[in-house]
Amino acid sequence: MQLGSASEGAGLSKWQEDKAKANRLAIARLTKSLPPVFPSAVLARALNCRFVPLTPRLAIDGYWRAHPLRADRLARALAARSGAPSDWRWQLTDDRSTGLPTTYRSPPAPYREQAHAKGAGFCCVCGQPVYRFGWHVDLWNAGVNKNASWHSACVIAWQFWNAPSGQTRLLRRLQGLRCRDSNRRLLRAAEVDHRVPLFQVWRQHRDLPWPELLGYWGLPNLQVINREIHVAKCATEARNRRAARSATVELA
């Protein structure tokens, strides 16, 4: 047992030495490739990472991955700056080639649709220009990045909107580990839920301005609740949907 422990300790020490050496080389490479102007918050995080990113672009991508809620707020703010095209309306289709969503569970994104896409250099999520390193502001006076069609922040926001359960741990902490519905302690099996169900957004709110619609996929409409409460909420929503369909059939 003692030999095994000593071997493990030596192995850990060697691993730490290798990591420190790799990080020194990474810092040197990152510093060499940095432009004169670079977002200070991104650089501070990169230099304090367990494994330092090798390039400025990786540093920016890592920053937004570490801050998905900031990415969510920024993407919605950029969308509000763009606004929707004048002739755009939220629609669903079975033809994926058009860029239109096939389900109401996907957030509406007019600039991902073929009819409204702005092309290279503009973000397909928010519609704003994309600059160097996928940043949303031209800090380098280099103009639009014609090789990009996503902001780094919008990539993370899009992932968050489509799969918020991937950020359950973060949302739990944000709620102080309390169930948003019952105010009891969140259990391990607690789940992420949309306060206003997305089917209800599609049925009742689809004509809202596009940037406002995005809030139903973002943080303002998300909560973490205990699983038994989530199951009961889903059952109630299913009954309401059946009742609404029956009423529609009777009126027809």
UniProtKB/TrEMBL annotation:
This is Uncharacterized protein. It comes from Rhodopseudomonas pseudopalustris. The lineage of its organism: Bacteria, Pseudomonadati, Pseudomonadota, Alphaproteobacteria, Hyphomicrobiales.
